[in-house]
């Protein structure tokens, strides 16, 4: 319970705050598991990533082999590190991208690149 009392506005301003705690609230805080705050920490980390994430786009390519008439493919490239502001500002850190390739004869491949 929180109670505030103020004096007359014509006099000097003072604020008094009093609080009382009940025995029920003390027992619930004593019985908490020590790792129970871990879930709130992980959601804080996820919120931090969500605030730093800004989609920068993607790239695509088509491939046609000169050696085989029937061989061809397409790839989709998504830059991972460029989408995070804190990572993109560090010029010495490697650029991380992921590429997924679809080709004929039927091939599907995914690559994680750091350069």
Description:
By secondary structure, the chain is an alpha+beta fold. Helices cover 23% and strands 36% of the residues. The strands form two sheets. A four-stranded antiparallel beta sheet has the order 3-4-5-6, with no helix packed on it. The longest helix is centred in the middle third of the chain and has 15 residues, at 38-52.
Unreliable runs, pLDDT <50, ≥5 residues? 1-6, 15-19
Largest sheet: 4 strands, antiparallel
Number of helices: 3
The total of beta strands comes to 6
**Strand-residue proportion:** 35-45%
Radius of gyration: 29 Å
Mean pLDDT: 75
Which percent range fits the helix content? 10-25%
Keyphrases for this structure?
single chain; 23% helix; 4-stranded antiparallel sheet; 3 helices; alpha+beta; disordered N terminus; two-stranded antiparallel ribbon; 115 residues
Give the secondary structure arrangement, pairings included:
Layout: E1 2-6, E2 15-19, H1 23-30, H2 38-52, E3 59-64, E4 72-79, H3 85-88, E5 96-104, E6 107-114
Antiparallel strand pairs: 1-2, 3-4, 4-5, 5-6
Brief digest:
With 115 residues, this protein is of the alpha+beta class.
């Amino acid at each position: 319970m929180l109670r505030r009392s103020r004096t007359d506005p014509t006099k000097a301003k003072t604020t008094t705050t009093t609080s009382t705690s009940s025995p029920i609230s003390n027992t619930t805080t004593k019985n908490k598991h020590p790792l129970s705050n871990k879930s709130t920490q992980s959601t804080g980390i996820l919120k931090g990533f969500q605030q730093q994430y800004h989609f920068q786009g993607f790239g695509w390519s088509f491939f046609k082999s000169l050696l085989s008439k029937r061989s061809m493919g397409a790839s989709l490239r998504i830059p991972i590190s460029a989408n995070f502001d804190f990572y993109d500002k560090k010029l010495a850190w490697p650029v991380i991208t992921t590429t997924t390739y679809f080709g004929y004869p039927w091939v599907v491949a995914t690559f994680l690149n750091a350069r």
